[in-house]
Specification:
mainly alpha, 71% helix
Length: 78
Amino acid sequence: MALVDSVDTSSTDARERLLASARDEIVRRGILGLRVADVAANAHYSVSVIYRHFGDRDSLLAADLGHMYDATLERRRA
């Protein structure tokens, strides 16, 4: 599948796909092993899309950890 750079990369779907890819990479390699290039490739986006959505690796990581924390709270409330 070709990498996407500009087609509908501003969507919530793109952000969610990137976060899911980051989550998979964290599970596979750990926080220190998280690489933006791997996250982008696994989500089928170019690296520039990650920087457009999150700014940098640390912001991507913070967003994903926040997402995981929110999901954990939701499960505990259920």
